[in-house]
Write a structure and sequence with these properties.
The protein is mostly helical and 409 residues long. It is 72% helix and 0% strand.
């Protein structure tokens, strides 16, 4: 069920109206049922996957909480073991459904190159919608319990709603347990019918529909035409296609987040901001403070910092940045082009860090105010072009196509 579909326009008002009129104590059960119906409208069988991920991480949270109240080395080891089981099982499911075909294809290429027997690949699976989002949300929960930032949820239905909450289930934002789960716990105590929240939520949803249906879907026609016929077109047309795709993908991603935030707000929930005018960024680092904020902060808190962050020297920091952005690229899709897209953004940040002393020296020599308007405009322009270059790799499926487009431009 897409947000911009007739089905959703019927589904959402029914869910909201019944949510307002039923007793507060059972509202979370109604939202859970609605969320599973929403997810099953894509493919009913894959409800078993989200249920399995929910059950595994729910039990992991209880076990981590149990061992956290015990003392001694054994309890500490047990907590880490539970976390490992939770991550390996959930990431294993994610790998099988999202990356196994990609892995098999590339493994067979290597085997053919070495003239060895290839692996039988006469099967395929359909990628379950939203699996990357709810997997990361569930894994973030067990880490939060491990760190003591939140108490393990004892009610399995409330936790299941946290994982499957339908507004942000398939396209984010990737919510934190400290935010969404706490709001689910407080449903009986909170006011629901707040006029200003409902109106603001509907306005946010309307703006999201505008970005999706009026801008993204319209500009995609031009972008698809240019990228399908790239070999017939010149530099100006290809540049228009590249910039057009940058606008399209922002409006696509941003619209779904806005509709999710607005829909949740109508029901009295506050979701985190996911996009904050990213194309006005003045550096790649600044871009990632504004783009897909829920994902970038997830990688920061649950991957970058555990890897050591910037605490183990500059060289280690650069390696961590490259690793995180490589993983971020693969998270978006199973393809070498996504990996290169992530690696480019990681490389941009490393190069920016290396050149920072040189830039400051240049500002001093040229007596330029690096916070002045002219410098900020120049930085904005350069950042936007670097982002455009990376988006070309994100858009194509053949790396040679991306290289041809860049060469022509």
């Amino acid at each position: 069920m897409l947000f911009n579909s007739v089905e959703f326009l019927v589904f959402f008002p029914i869910v909201v109206l019944l949510y307002w009129v039923i007793p507060k104590k059972i509202r979370y059960i109604w939202l859970l049922a609605a969320s599973y119906y929403f997810y099953m409208s894509w493919n009913a069988q894959y409800a078993l996957l989200i249920a399995a991920s929910t059950l595994i991480t729910y039990l992991c949270g209880l076990l981590v909480d149990f061992f956290g109240k015990r003392e001694g080395r054994g309890a500490a080891v047990s907590k880490k073991l539970v976390i490992a089981v939770g991550f390996l099982s959930n990431l294993g499911i994610l790998f099988f459904y999202k990356y196994f075909d990609f892995f098999l294809e590339n493994a067979n290429r290597l085997l053919e190159h070495w003239k060895l027997q290839t692996i039988d690949s006469n099967f395929s699976v359909i990628l379950p919608v939203g699996i990357s989002f709810y997997t990361f949300q569930a894994l973030g929960y067990i880490v939060d319990v491990y760190r003591g930032e939140i108490q393990a949820e004892k009610n399995p239905l409330k936790y299941a709603l946290f994982v499957s909450f339908f507004p942000q289930l398939v396209a984010g934002p990737i919510e934190r347990s400290k935010n969404l789960l706490e709001q689910i716990r407080d449903i009986p105590e909170r006011k629901t019918l707040e006029y200003h929240r409902i109106v603001n939520g509907l306005i946010v949803m309307l703006y999201g529909f505008f970005l999706k249906m009026v801008i993204a879907d319209r500009i995609s026609i031009l972008v698809d035409y240019i990228f399908k016929r790239y070999y017939m077109l010149g530099a100006v047309e290809l540049l228009v296609g590249a910039v057009g795709f940058s606008i399209q993908i922002y409006c696509d991603f941003g619209s779904y987040s806005l509709i999710a935030i607005g829909a949740a707000q109508v029901m009295g929930f506050t979701l985190m901001e996911n996009f904050n005018t990213p194309y006005f960024a003045v550096s790649i680092k600044d871009f990632w403070r504004r783009w897909h904020i829920s994902l970038s902060t997830w990688f920061r808190d649950y991957l970058y910092i555990p890897l050591g962050g910037n605490r183990k020297g500059q060289c280690r920091r650069w390696i961590n940045v490259l690793l995180v952005f490589g993983v971020s690229g693969i998270w978006h899709g199973a393809g070498v082009n996504y990996l290169l897209w992530g690696a480019l953004h990681g490389g941009y940040q490393v190069i920016g860090s290396v050149l920072q002393p040189f830039r400051k020296k240049c500002y001093q020599i040229m007596k330029m105010n690096y916070k002045g308007r002219a410098v900020q405009v120049l930085k904005f322009f350069i950042t936007f072009q670097l982002v455009n270059i990376a988006w070309i790799f994100f858009r194509v499926t053949d790396i040679r196509q991306a290289c041809y487009i860049l060469k022509t431009i």
